[in-house]
């Protein structure tokens, strides 16, 4: 090799990795892959992988690289991981977040680094206010709790006991359900809470039974529904005539089919059912199951799927520019079809606007599903709407 060629080869060899690095957009995906919330991590990760498999890893001339980190469900761990992803890996976007305290712990880092924080799986209303860089594709608990209260009153339920997990989304569910139910003429006899970590439902279920309400309104996070239902039956509450009403977190597609026939007839409100009747959802469920050993996608998975779609469409709008402020500006007001139905990002609050469906658990083709029978279209987060 003559000297000129050698120099050229060296120059190309040196330049190539730098140019490559510049063309790669890294997304730091922080999820609870182990611990109590592991089913959420699994669902969101599977949806992100399916999105990449179907849409490819190139968008707006950039190569997308997703770096998955397990926060184990612990906020301090998530915070450290977010810092490392921003400082060492130079991610352009932080995404995931399977629990409210984790989304909140990472928000100051998003603000400081000016990096979008795409919240795919946490539902406390206030999360979007924790940083101007938060954009949510998940849901809020008030979105499903308020329609549940409205339906209950219209269907003859007058006295309710509420039972929620004692942290952000549970408190939002309790408060928003109670406010709407009371405003429409109902009475909340008792408001019961259980700890997020290793909850024992027996004592509160006894209290609920003693109070003799028309219905028990329940929120527990995705992954805890089956255990709740088991104790509901063990305590004999299914024999008391007290109706079970819930947010769809309880009758979660991830666990529903294993809950048993006792949940048939349970009315609940939520943003997504694997049984949602659309061509897009049928294709989504089929592809998801095929890629994941038959696993049924749940509402957490669509938060992940739509979070990736939001990132891709924002990058198209910025022509591949990764400046955080530009990306968030591009995300505001964006609208698209999701497996859950039509959705958009409220340009004022950066929160999700979506249909809420009233559903009844039914047996379809031998399996339990949440079957939608009424739609409340384009629901904005009621907590933020009330503040205006
Ligand atoms: C949350 O932490 O915000 C959260 C977790 C699980 C749910 C809903 C909300 O099902």
Topology, element by element:
Blueprint: H1 3-23, E1 24-31, H2 38-55, E2 58-59, E3 62-70, H3 75-87, E4 93-96, H4 100-113, E5 117-119, E6 134-136, H5 141-154, E7 159-165, H6 168-183, E8 187-194, H7 202-211, E9 215-219, H8 225-234, E10 243-247, E11 267-270, H9 279-291, H10 299-317, H11 324-331, E12 335-338, E13 341-345, E14 352-364, E15 367-379, H12 382-387
Parallel strand pairs: 1-3, 1-4, 4-5, 5-6, 7-8, 7-9, 9-10, 10-11
Antiparallel strand pairs: 2-3, 11-14, 12-13, 13-14, 14-15
Helix pairs in contact: 2-10, 3-4, 5-6, 10-11
The molecules bound to the chains, other than polymers, are:
P-hydroxybenzoic acid
How many H/I helices?
12
Strand fraction equals: 15-25%
Q: Give the strand tally.
A: 15
- Which residue ranges are poorly predicted, with pLDDT under 50 across at least 5 consecutive positions? 6-21
Oligomer type: single chain
Mean pLDDT across the residues is 95
Give the H and E element order. HEHEEHEHEEHEHEHEHEEHHHEEEEH
- Terminus-to-terminus distance: 72 Å
Q: Could you describe the largest sheet, including whether it forms a barrel?
A: 9 strands, mixed
In helices, the fraction of residues equals: 40-55%
What is the C-alpha radius of gyration, as a whole number of Å? 22 Å
Q: What structural class do the secondary elements suggest?
A: alpha/beta
User: What overall geometry do the principal axes of the alpha carbons give?
Assistant: globular
């Amino acid at each position: 090799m003559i000297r000129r060629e050698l120099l050229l080869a060296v120059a190309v060899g040196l330049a190539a990795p730098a140019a490559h690095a510049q063309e790669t957009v890294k997304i730091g995906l922080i999820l609870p892959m182990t611990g109590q919330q592991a089913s959420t991590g699994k669902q969101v990760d599977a949806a992100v992988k399916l999105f990449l498999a179907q849409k490819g890893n190139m968008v707006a001339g950039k190569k997308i690289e997703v770096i998955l980190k397990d926060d184990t469900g612990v906020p301090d761990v998530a915070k450290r991981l977010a810092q490392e992803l921003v400082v060492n890996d130079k991610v352009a976007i932080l995404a995931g977040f399977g629990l409210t305290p984790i989304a909140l712990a990472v928000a100051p880092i998003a603000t400081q680094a000016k990096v979008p924080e795409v919240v795919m799986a946490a539902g406390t209303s206030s999360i979007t206010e924790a940083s101007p860089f938060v954009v949510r594709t998940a849901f809020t608990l008030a979105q499903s709790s308020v329609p549940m209260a409205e339906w209950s009153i219209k269907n003859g339920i007058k006295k309710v006991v509420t039972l929620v997990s004692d942290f952000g989304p549970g408190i939002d569910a309790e408060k928003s359900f109670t406010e709407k139910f009371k405003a429409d003429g109902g009475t909340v006899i008792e408001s019961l809470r259980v700890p997020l970590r290793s909850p024992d439902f027996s004592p509160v279920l006894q209290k609920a039974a003693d109070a003799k309400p028309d219905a028990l309104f329940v929120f527990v996070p995705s992954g805890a529904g089956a255990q709740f239902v088991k104790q509901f039956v063990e305590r004999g509450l299914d024999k008391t005539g007290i109706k079970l009403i819930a947010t769809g977190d309880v009758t979660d597609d991830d666990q529903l089919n294993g809950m048993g026939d006792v949940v048939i007839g349970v009315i609940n409100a939520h943003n997504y059912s694997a049984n949602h009747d659309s061509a897009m959802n049928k294709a989504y469920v089929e592809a998801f199951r095929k890629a994941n050993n038959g696993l049924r996608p749940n509402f957490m998975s669509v938060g992940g799927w739509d979070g990736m779609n939001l990132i891709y469409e924002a990058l198209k709008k910025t022509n591949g520019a990764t400046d955080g402020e530009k990306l968030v500006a591009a995300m505001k007001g964006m609208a698209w079809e999701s497996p859950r139905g039509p959705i958009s990002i409220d340009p004022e609050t950066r929160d999700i606007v979506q249909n809420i469906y009233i559903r009844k658990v039914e047996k379809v083709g031998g399996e339990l599903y949440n079957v939608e029978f009424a739609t409340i279209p384009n629901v904005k987060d009621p907590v933020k709407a009330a503040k205006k």
